[in-house]
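Issue 218. Parser rejects a valid record. Input:
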Amino acid sequence: MNIISKKKPFFAIKSFLYDYLAKYERISHLPLQYSDLLRYTDAFPFIDKKGNDTLWESVVYPPYLMQELNTQLIEIYSLLKTGGDVSVIEHLYIDRIDYCTFGNSNPFRIRVMNHFNDNYDYFYVKKGDASRIYGLELEHILSPNRINYFVYDQTLIEEHIAGIPGDEFIKSGLDRPSLNKVRIAKEFVKFNERCFVRLLGDMRAYNYVIVITPDFEEEQYRVRAIDFDQQCYEGKKNNYLPQFFKDNNAVVALCTNKLAPETVRQYQFEERTLMGRRYKAAHERIADLMQSIEQDDISTPKKFAQLRSELATHHQKSEFKKATSMGILLHLHLEAMLVK
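Output the parser choked on:
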């Protein structure tokens, strides 16, 4: 069983990472900071439709402050969705603000409601963390998914990633009559490979979602990470492979039952090939990102030493033993996995 650090420390966003974010238009001036949302006066557990405690709390603000926050948060939502043009979203309002005390990032989840049709959307306000930002960037560059986020000072704004939470899908979705078990197994193999290639850790079932898309014959699936806090942080190599977390055992068993070893290797190679093409296509951006992460401090000396040793053994390459930072390890690992 993998053991994940219970509480990862926050790593401040340093000047060289700001320079990178500014170059690629990830900086946006905000009307509020993460700390402003901590001024709530009351909170109560948010219970889902099935009566389960979600570990989120809905927070309450004084009326005068809520009016101010409504204006500021709608402005932030407009930056995410319409480039800051609020004229087309005047009919929106903030319906609820939730706070999560569980996990590393302690995010606020903002629910935005449409006056006219009661349709709603979410976005997140989080404390800025360098390792998380590197995770978001690598997801945007190397995965088949685009990521919408921006940073201001030490505050991070993220768009909601829609999908069925992995733990919920494992509990009830695996028994759906319409489920194509071979296809979901294939997608989990590819997801597992993506996480390892870019060293994204802690992909327990509640840290990813399943996106289901109806096709002209059957359903298509994609597994998407939604938590990027453990980018290049953990020391144990297997912590970067979702297959080794016990709450993913049911999906791993499905993969074993439905896919032959040769097919698994085929899907792994396919995914690395696609990631390799993205890696080469974005070579300038990757080079800038690696320049930043190689000089950054996003883990502990003990974890770095362990991962350096394990990756050197995995790749059988002596240059891994000479690495002096997690960022350099990541760069060497990407080159070994993606560049032929």
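Fixed in the parser; the record now loads. The chain has two domains: 15-159, 164-338.
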